[in-house]
Amino acid sequence: MSSLRALASQARGPKLQFPALPPGWEKKYKPGEMYRHQNSIPKLPVPPLQQTLQKYLTSVQPLLTEEEFQKTKAIVEEFGRPGGVGEMLQQKLLRRAKLCDNWLTEWWLRVAYLGFRLPNPVNVSPAISYPWQPMGDTETYIKTAARHLLGTVKWNLLILTESLSPDIYRRRPLCMSQYNGYSRCRIPGPAVDTLRRTPIHESRHMVVVHNGHFFKLNVLYEAPNGELAVCPPTHIVHQLHNILKAAPEPAEYPVGILTSEHRDTWFHARERLLKDPTNTASLDVIERAQSVFCLDKPHPYNSSSLTAHSKFSDSHSTVIANRCLHGNGSQYNSTNRWFDAANQTVLGEDGGCGSILEHSAADGVTSIRTNQFTLDLLYRSNYDVLAEHSAVEPGILQPAEKLEWNISPESARDIDTAKKNLDSLVADVDLQVYAFTEFGKNFAKSMKLSPDGFMQIAIQLAHYKLYGRLTATYESAATRQFKYGRTDTIRSATNEALAFTKAMCDPSASVDKKADSLDTAVKAHTNYTNDAISGQAIDRHLLGLKLLAGESGMETPELYKDPAFARSMHFRISTSQVPVPGHRIFLCFGAVVEDGYGLSYNPQETQVLFSVSSCRQCPHTDSQLFVSMLVKSMREMHDVMMAAKGTKSKL
To answer: What global pTM score does this model have?
Structure first.
C-alpha cells in the first residue's frame, strides 16, 4: 500500500459507509479509484543547470537596462562556470533528488508556508467566492447551511474511501496527495509552524462558528452494522437551529481572532491559552475537526451601496470576496473564523457564501474541485440531501456542544490587540471583482491563441499602459504530474511581451504588426507554461540551489545578491488562473508585495471573471484603476485580432 493509502485508511476503528449520492453519480465515484495511477507518477526532475541559467537571463532581460543586464550576465556566467559553485550545488541537488520522491516538497512546505510568519488571512489563505445565494428567512438559511455541510461530509467520505476519479491533464495522471486535507490544522510554532493531522476515527465532527462562539457538531455516527455513517439531515438541521439560538450575541472574547495574528504572536497567545485545561480541550476539538463552518451575520452595508459607485466592480461578488478573504473586520465576521483550519466554509445570512483555503498543504485547483462538488450536488443534480432518510435509534446522535473558554487578563489583551491588527489589515485591502462579459476564452481559441496566454499578455499590457514598463510577474503553474508536486512559477513578463506592449502603444505600428507580436507573445508564454508544468521552470530550481548553499554552510552565491535577482523576485503582479466551467465562482487573494497586485481569473467560454487586490496604503496602486485598464487592454487586443483577421482574409 502506498503512503497515501496508508494516510487515507489510517483509521483502525469502524469502517466507512459509502455516502448516498444522486442517481448516476456512482459511475463517477468508485471506491479504490483515487490512487490508481499513484505508483506510476514520476519524481520531480532536476532541470539542467545551464538550461536554468539561460532561462533566468532571458527572464530578467525585459526588467533591466542593458548595462544592468551585462552585469547580471557576468554574475550568472561565473556561477555556472565549469567546476564552479553552481555545478557543485547542482550535484548536491541531484543526489538529494535520488533519495526522495520529491526533492522540493519538504523545503517548499517549510519556506513558502510553515516558516512564513505573516498572518494567514490575505497574505497566505486564498478565498473562493460563490454566486450570491438569497436566503430569505432563517429556516431557508439553516437548510442551505445544512446542505453545504452535508455536501462537505460526503466529499470527505469519498476521499477516505478513495472514490475520487484521478485527475488527468493532457492524458497524464496527476498526483492526488493534496486532496488529503480533511481533519488538518496548522499549528503555530515559535519560528516554524506544524500541520496537525487527525485520523478519521478521532475526527467525527465539524466545528460550527456563529457570532464568534464555537460549537462541536458530530456529523458521523457509528451505525448498528459498525460502519461510520453520515448523521441524518434532520439531526443536522435541528442542531444548526440550536446553535443559532445558543449564540444570539457576539462572543465577549472571540478567541478565533487570534488565528489572524502574526504567526509568532499567535504562538505565544496560544501558549497562554493552553495554561488552562478548559482552553486546551476546546483547542483540541477545533484542531481535530474535519472542517470549520462559519455562519456569518449579514454584511454591514447594503449590498448595492458598497460598490455601486464603481463602474468596474461587480457589487455582489466584491462583497462576497471581501467577506471570505478577511471577514470585513472585528466588528463584523473576522471574529467568526479559525484561519488555521484547512478548509472553512463561509455562509452568510444575507446570501454571501464561499470558502477559505489554508494554503500550506493544498493549492487552488484542488480546492476548487472540492467546492465544485458541493455546488454541483446542491444546484445541478436535482437531488436534495435533506430528503435522505435513515433510521437512527434515540440516544445515538449527540447534540451540538458549545466550546468553553477561560480567558485570563493576558489573553483578553491578546484578543484586543488581534482585533486592532486585523482591522488595520482589512482597511488596507483594496479588492475588486469584475465580470467581463464581452467575450471569453472561446474568442482566444478562435484566433488559435491560448486563453491563459491571452489573459497574461492583457495583464502585461495593462501594467505597461499604467506604469510605462513591465514588472516581475508570477503565474502559478501546477506540477502535479509529478509525485507530491505543488507549483512552479511562470514568468509572464517576457521579451516578447515587452515587444508587444511597445507595438500596441506605438501609433505608427500597423495592425498586422500588433497582431503578429501578440501571437508571438502568447506563444512564448505558452512555451514557458509547458516547461513549468513539466518541471523545467527556473524558480524552484534556483530556490533549491540557494537552500543547499545555506545548509552546506556556504556564503550566499553572488547570483542571489545581485539586485537583478531581487527585482525579478519582487512580484508586483501575482496571478493565478483557476478555470471553473458552469459556476460563477472564482479565487481571490491579497497582493504578495505592498506595491503590487494580486490577480486571479476564471476564463469561461463567453466571459472572464477576475478579482484584483492591492494595498490602499500604497500610493502607486489602485485596484479599480487596474481593472479598468485591464478591460481596456482586452478590448484593444480583441479589436486588433479582428482587424488583422479581416485584412488577411481580404488578401
So the answer is: 0.93
